[in-house]
Structure formats: C-alpha cells, structure tokens
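Revision sheet: structure tokens.
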Amino acid sequence: MRAIGMIATALLVAGCMDGHPGPMPGPRICNAGAVQGFVGAQISPRLQSRLRARSGASSVRVVGPGDAVTMDYRRDRLTVDVNQRGRITGMRCV
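Predicted:
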C-alpha cells in the first residue's frame, strides 16, 4: 500500500513538469564604464563593495604596482588598479 502511494506521488509530480528546464542564470557582466567616476578615490573595503555593486561585477580585484596577477579573462570581474598610495588609477573588466 505504501509503495502505491509513493508511485502515485511520483506520477503526480512528474505530471506537473513540462520537460523544459527553467532558464539558467548567466554569468554577470561587468560594466567598468559605470564606475570611472571613482578614479582618483582612495580604495577601501567599503568602496570596493560600492564598485562591485555599481559595475555589476561578481568580484573586485585590486592590483597595486608590482602585484602579480593571473592572466585569465573574466568578464564578471572588475580589476581596480591603484598606485602606491592606494588611489585608483584605472578600472577594467578582466
């Protein structure tokens, strides 16, 4: 009796599915142009959060003079270049 109930439930649930999966969320795309007004500002954790939110990036990478960075291209990452004093000198999505 219990097996019949489980089978009936499985068939009921299967009948609600149309066979087409829902849309998969795509990767976020960064927009460095939206944050260029912050060039010259002092970088901080709070500003990094604002830059991520305004640019639409999934992550923010801060690169100082002489820092080693990976060469992988990620269109969802905002790379923030800073000078030795921590002032933003440029931003790009890579």
